[in-house]
Specification:
Layout lengths: L10 E7 L19 E3 L14 E3 L4 E4 L4 E8 L35 E3 L1 E4 L7 E8 L6 E13 L2 E14 L13 E9 L7 E6 L14 E8 L2 E6 L2 E6 L11 E8 L19 E13 L1 E9 L2 H5 L5 E7 L6 E3 L4 E12 L3 E3 L4 E6 L7
Parallel strand pairs: 3-6, 18-19, 19-21, 20-22, 21-23
Antiparallel strand pairs: 1-17, 2-7, 4-5, 5-6, 5-17, 7-16, 8-13, 8-17, 9-10, 9-16, 10-11, 11-12, 13-14, 14-15
Length: 370
């Protein structure tokens, strides 16, 4: 099974960025010329603590006009010798990062700087999310492409995420260290509906159609999120799917990609004295794309002639009836037609699909994005 059908005209591209049109920047937020991409400012960390040891800096999100890519660059800075960094830490995290943190716990051991970008002011409810990128795979690398949602619940908040992918090269257990086992590519859902009681769903370490080291080359990672299913793909090949509706997020989420540093690469969590990564590396992004299904779920459509089909307003309908009047309605040998409805598609009388043509009917609930 492949990712979304390019011939399925019910899908519309609602966001696409190939990083080819940037000219000027807001130096505080790295806003792109169209106002949709931002890197986080230097005094805020989206996630981290004892598990991740990076400060996201706008200087580490580089819009490379030489090859039209976004480069998220991670740098190691033990003692502040990299110029022009903003070393302002979030409130409560003290002064300049040190290698051991408070009381040797490592909790405050930030001395890596890296990049993170969000699609701002454009939350998505369901859709298809795709990135073409090259990944860093050194010890401690933790790049990801994911959807994150934070919504209000009674007297509390709840947190959800859909990971299109995470890659983690970690040292987890001194007695079971294996150079390959802990190089993990994962995808799945984290869902919390009650007081941050996190549950993992569809979490999987799939066997990739490519080798670990090949992740340094360009590959396409994608995810289709609908109310009743989530499917994950690598280079168009299905690697994971999930159909438990109650455990699938059903509220708008923000799209994010980041290059984090896993704490297991650092001194305070290195069980076997494995050489630690003290270098600079990059996650290179060629493009990011988001598609959503057109929805007109209250409409009842009737196709009575070829012109009706040729001019069909492709969207998820309530029902579709193909009822030819005096002449046949046909799918020609070069046509690719997909009809989607929530209730039914009815076909009567003279309907034809010529040899070589493709005709698909999909019945599913309304994936309303409004």
């Amino acid at each position: 099974m492949a990712q979304i059908d390019l011939y399925d005209r019910n899908w519309d591209t609602v966001f696409y960025d190939d990083f080819s049109s940037y000219r000027t920047w807001d130096p505080q937020t790295w806003i792109s010329s169209d106002g949709k991409w931002k890197a986080l400012a230097g005094n805020w960390v989206t996630h981290g603590g004892q598990y991740e040891h990076q400060l996201y800096q706008y200087q580490n999100c580089i819009f490379n006009t030489a090859d039209n890519t976004m480069r998220l660059v991670s740098e190691y800075d033990w003692d502040g010798d990299i110029p022009a960094h903003n070393y302002s830490l979030p409130s409560g995290y003290g002064g300049y990062p040190n290698p051991y943190g408070q009381n040797g716990s490592g909790v405050d051991s930030w001395y890596y700087f890296s990049g993170e970008i969000d699609v701002r002011d454009m939350p998505f409810l369901y859709g298809y999310f795709e990135i073409k990128c090259k990944l860093p795979i050194h010890l401690g690398s933790f790049p990801a492409f994911w959807l994150v949602g934070l919504s209000e619940a009674p007297n509390n908040s709840y947190y959800n995420e859909i990971d299109v992918f995470e890659y983690s090269n970690s040292i987890v257990d001194a007695d079971h260290f294996d150079d390959n086992y802990y190089k993990q590519f994962t995808c799945g859902i984290y869902c919390d509906n009650d007081n941050y009681d996190m549950a993992s769903h569809a979490r999987k370490n799939p066997i990739l159609p490519i080798g670990n080291s090949d992740l340094r080359n360009y590959h396409v990672f994608s995810c289709e999120w609908l109310p009743y299913s989530v499917k994950w793909f690598v280079d168009g090949q299905l690697i994971n799917d999930y159909y438990v509706r109650d455990s699938i997020p059903h509220h708008p989420m923000n799209l994010r990609t980041d290059y984090a540093i896993d704490s297991w690469a650092l001194l305070d969590h290195n069980p076997r004295n494995v050489p630690i990564w003290f270098g600079s590396d990059v996650m290179t992004i060629d493009y990011i794309k988001v598609c959503q299904l057109n929805t007109d779920c209250n409409a009842e459509e009737i196709i009575t002639c070829q012109s009706d089909l040729d001019n069909f307003d492709y969207a998820v309908k309530k029902d579709i009836k193909i009822l030819p009047s005096s002449r046949s309605v046909k799918i020609r040998n070069t046509d690719h037609v997909t009809l989607r409805a929530t209730d039914y598609v009815q076909i009567n009388n003279s309907f034809q699909v010529e040899y070589g043509g493709e005709f698909t009917v999909i019945i599913h609930e309304c994936p309303c994005s409004n």
